[in-house]
Specification:
Chain lengths: 414, 589
């Protein structure tokens, strides 16, 4: 069934071989398959965000396009987590579940899928990495969980396994987790839905797959029939202008959005001169090292808190801690890093500058309060040179975000 | 200053072409109009038996403290009201966005600059009086000019394109308790020039309309022979309110209140220029100062083509007052970050990459080179409230009805408080603190009664009839038609969708009970259609407006209203009472 037998020989029998070899999957198989889907979606987010933050003009079409895709990927992660919860497990966002870069998407075919890394945005990155990640599956490509060529095949395998399961594997009561339907903010396509049965599961997967790689032939006209698009939104209209589009037209898939950006290389906006696939041990500027560690620590604490938001129970740190770190701290810390030379005595306008590594640090024992204090110290140490103005602004904003949540984080034991 | 005051201090009447049937303007926030006989208002009440649009009367009450004084109040023998309206639009300066707000420059052009006798450009019927219960109508027309009044003037002859005359600025009536009802003009606009061309959205030489404004005064006579004057109010006549239950994000009340706050009238909010922020500062009430703003964003989806999802809000989370833990600060900050802050009036995208709200055109997106305010933003006071709320310094309490103060707020919250380019009811003159009483922040300084003719200038301490509406577009239909969508850069923004709908939903069904939560449209609601226009090409003049402003002069009274109704089992805001065919193709002009 696999497109490349030689590639398959090198891969040890994995989860999806179990799924296809046994006629009846057990619940744990489904849980693991859904967790894999979650990790695939998760892998794309740091990749897209690193490129996003490297774009200076937040109003540019490229920035807005990439932002819309990154937001929809976060929504896909949330939707995959809901599937896991409905299957009776808890989604994992820490430890081994965290993607490392550079690498391939979990269990993807390295011969046909791109090497995924943290890159400064460019037309080539959009063409060769981003569009390749979201590449549509070929006609007739079989469902395939291991060594897949496209994400749609992976979801195909998940759907096939769920369909083969006798009865309804999903439950909304008596499970240890909590499905979340309220955390997808903004104007982008789709809604996060509760998964209750095979029907709602199919709808959720369809939405993820069609938003990603898309199945709509590009020549198809805009027609208001896509049930999960954004009802009434703004975009390129059929009259050639930008403006309101009434009804629920097909949204361009992520693949086509990236393709459009890659083809218009002349209008690609300016980017910050950051290092690709950064590793803080390469930095000789101690400030860049410290900020890189701070970013990773914040990121790790956010993942811990995020994981907790899917556990049933009263305490829900989503709006008190998680959203605040995602929205008010990490973007500014990322931009602070991107305005910091990686090498001692470097010039931040020339580069190379540092960039977030998105490393999960399980070994860190610093509390959120200590992280806040460190940022404060970092600000105090900054010189008054106008060259550091951008850095200072970003650090100040990130620190303000930190200070808002330090009490809530403490209550969580972070 | 007396112990008796007329409320609301600014009342709004609205034009209509039905000569007799009328209703009273809403006296509740986002409320429906009020029928004269007290029946519940239905969609049939927007028009008379012949399908003509009813005028909306402004109702005035007298209060002594919180107690209303009417003819039914023991000891009251009579209440005599005096109203003097005028229309000074043609005699004033041209409207050019914010130019003139800080005083006009010497080279600022006048309207009808070639007319030497400027008094001939004022429509002035002189003052009128009315007293008693169920009295009137007392017309403010050219045939009943008070004896001895020297300033009377009306446009001469037939006005084109509709071949009508402006013979009246309206009429006075009283209700069963002797409260005053002021009706405005019949919506007649035109020019003596038979070709009847409208060249511009705000300034058209030779044109007239029959809106107007002026002071309202009253004297209470007591059974014991004594009498008391009441502090005067002001009446102003505006275009129809086509979506009375949908409010603007920035209302006229917000704008005037903001100017009062910044002038020191509410030291608990702003004391000597210092915003009272932080945990010991002013704590806005979620129910009266935050939730309405969010609801206004939600209801815009019924009258403009905006995505409903990001405009629907979980009020329970957003209204949760933090105690020892603050669960929703991240969510509140998310909303604060989307709102356009002060000093970002010319940015559409925030530094974070989000499209900043409101997605509405600002005071001055039309003239380059002057100081600009391309996009609308909340008033300073509104923004301060949202900031305090986001930081967790707020309360969530039921709102007590505070009598006449609530009436003032309700009436003005149903009006536009920006963008003022020029606006719908009134424009930036309402931000000028000099025109208000020093001790009564919403009450306009009224000039003593005059035998005429009226003053041609501007004396903020003694405002005369016509001194508020003269800044508005002439004829009002020109601005009303054009200010639908506004191309700015590569985007197209909206103006005042709550007052002048852009896109509406159809399908009326019988009226049901009002539901507590705010409905939002979705895929099942059916498609939105343009209120006016061909709704195809954004670049065309008739995208969501008439191609020619003159067509608004001809057809304004036949456009539909937007009303909350039960449709297919759910609450929706849908178009009702339209007498213009749909689709509609104007036959030339």
């Amino acid at each position: 069934m696999a497109p490349s037998e030689t590639a398959r020989e090198n891969v040890s029998p994995g989860l999806f071989d179990r799924l296809t070899s046994t006629s009846v999957p057990v619940l744990q198989d489904l849980q693991e398959a859904a967790q894999l889907a979650l990790q695939v979606e998760f892998t794309t987010i740091p990749v897209y965000l690193s490129a996003l933050y490297s774009i200076s003009d937040t109003g540019s079409h490229v920035y807005q396009t990439l932002r819309s895709v990154a937001m929809e990927e976060m929504f896909h992660v949330n939707q995959a987590a809901n599937i896991i919860v409905a299957l009776g497990a808890l989604p994992k966002f820490t430890g081994d579940a965290v993607p490392t870069f550079p690498g391939y998407m979990p269990q993807a075919n390295p011969k046909t899928t791109p090497m995924v890394g943290l890159f400064r945005a460019s037309p080539d990155v959009f063409a060769n990495v981003f569009a390749a990640i979201e590449s549509p599956s070929q006609y007739g490509a079989p469902p395939q969980g291991d060594n897949y060529d496209s994400i749609a095949q992976l979801y195909g395998a998940l759907v096939a396994a769920v369909d083969a399961y006798p009865g309804n594997p999903f439950s909304t009561t008596g499970v240890p987790g909590r499905q979340r339907t309220n955390i997808y903010l903004g104007k982008f396509g789709g809604n996060v839905n509760e998964v209750m049965d095979k029907e709602s599961f199919h709808a959720a997967v369809n939405e993820i797959v069609e938003q990603g790689e898309g199945t709509v032939p590009p020549e198809k006209p805009l027609v208001p029939v896509e049930s999960f698009g954004t009802y009434n939104h703004y975009g390129k209209r059929t009259d050639g202008t930008y403006g309101p589009i009434l009804g629920t037209p097909y949204e361009l898939s992520h693949f086509l959005k990236f393709r459009e950006v890659a083809l218009d290389s002349a209008n690609f906006p300016a980017t910050l001169p950051i290092i690709s696939n950064p590793d803080s041990s390469d930095y000789t500027n101690p400030q860049a090292k410290r900020l890189s560690d701070s970013f990773d620590d914040h990121y790790s604490l956010m993942l811990h808190a995020f994981e907790a938001t899917f556990k049933a129970g009263d305490s829900d740190p989503y709006f008190s801690v998680v959203l605040s770190i995602m929205h008010r701290v990490l973007p500014h810390l990322a931009r602070a890093l991107m305005s910091t030379p990686a090498f001692a005595d470097g010039d931040s306008s020339v580069g190379p500058n540092a960039a977030p590594a998105w490393r999960y640090r399980s070994d860190t024992n610093r509390t959120f309060g200590e992280l806040t204090q460190e940022l404060e110290d970092e600000l105090d140490q900054l010189s008054t040179s106008p060259r550091e103005n951008a850095l200072r602004t970003h650090l100040k904003t990130a620190l303000a975000g930190d200070k808002e949540i330090v009490t809530s984080a403490k209550a969580l034991g972070l | 200053m007396t112990d008796y005051k007329i409320y609301p201090p600014i009342g709004i009447a609205r034009v209509g072409n039905a000569p007799e049937k009328c209703y009273i303007g809403p006296e509740t926030y986002r409320g429906l109009p009020i029928n004269l006989d007290g029946r519940d208002f239905t969609q049939d009440d927007f028009r008379d038996e012949q399908g003509r649009m009813c005028r909306q009367a402004a109702r005035f009450h007298i209060f002594h403290g919180d107690e209303e004084i009417t003819l039914d109040t023991p000891g009251v023998k009579a209440i005599t009201w005096t109203v003097h309206m005028a229309n000074k639009k043609a005699s004033w300066y041209e409207f050019a966005t914010n130019e003139g707000e800080q005083g006009y420059a010497s080279n600022h052009p006048l309207r009808n600059a070639d007319v030497e006798d400027r008094h001939r450009l004022i429509i002035d019927p002189g003052p009128r009086q009315i007293s008693g219960a169920d009295a009137g109508p007392v017309p403010m027309d050219r045939d009943t000019i008070p004896e001895g009044y020297k300033g009377a003037n009306f446009p001469k002859g037939i006005l084109y394109p509709n071949r009508e005359c402006i013979d009246t600025l309206g009429e006075l009536r009283t209700d069963t308790a002797g409260r005053l009802l002021v009706l405005g003009g019949l919506g007649v606009s035109g020019t003596e020039d038979e070709s009847a061309v409208i060249k511009q959205y705000a300034n058209n030489d030779g044109w007239w309309d029959d809106t107007g404004d002026g002071p309202v005064s009253a004297v209470i006579e007591w059974d014991n022979g004594s009498s008391n004057p009441a502090d005067p109010a002001w009446v102003s006549v505006a275009p129809p309110s086509y979506a009375p239950e949908i409010a603007n994000l920035v209302t006229l009340w917000d704008t005037i209140f903001d100017s009062a706050v910044r002038a020191g009238h509410n030291p608990q909010i702003n004391n000597q220029g210092m915003w009272q922020s932080g945990s010991y500062g002013y704590k806005p009430n979620f129910q009266s100062e935050i939730k309405p703003l969010l609801e206004r964003a939600t209801t815009y989806a019924w009258v403009a083509a905006i995505p409903p999802k990001p405009h629907s809000f979980d009020m329970e989370m957003l209204g949760a007052v933090p105690d020892h833990e603050d669960h929703y600060r991240g969510l509140r900050n998310w909303i604060l970050d989307v709102l356009r802050p002060p000093a970002a009036e010319n940015s559409i995208i925030s530094g974070r990459g989000a499209t900043m709200m409101p997605y509405l055109a600002g005071d001055n997106c039309l003239i380059g080179g002057t100081f600009t305010s391309t996009y609308l933003r909340l008033t300073d006071t509104q923004f301060f409230f949202v900031q305090q709320w986001a930081a967790g310094h707020f309360v969530n309490e039921p709102v007590a009805d505070s009598g006449p103060q609530s009436l003032t707020r309700n009436v003005l919250e149903n009006c536009v408080g920006g963008a003022f380019s020029p606006g719908i009811e009134l424009t930036w003159i309402t931000r000028n603190r000099a025109i208000y009483n020093r001790d009564d922040p919403f009450r306009i300084n009224t000039a003593p009664p005059t035998e005429g003719p009226l003053n041609l200038g501007f004396t903020p301490t003694a405002m005369e009839p016509g001194d508020l509406t003269r800044y508005m577009a002439i004829p009002w239909q020109a601005d009303f038609n054009e200010c639908s969508s506004q191309p700015i850069g590569e985007r197209v923004l909206w103006w005042w969708p709550a007052q002048r709908p852009e896109f509406v939903y159809l399908e009326p069904k019988p009226q049901g009970v009002r539901q507590a939560t705010m409905p939002i449209p979705d895929e099942q609601t059916g498609g939105q259609v343009a209120w006016i226009g061909t709704d195809f090409d954004q670049m065309r003049g008739d995208f969501i407006s008439f191609a020619d402003d003159v067509q608004m002069v001809q057809y304004w009274s036949r456009l539909g209203f937007v009303m909350e109704k039960e449709v297919q089992g759910e609450r929706r805001f849908v178009e009702v009472a339209r007498t213009l065919p749909r689709p509609f193709t104007p036959n030339g002009n």
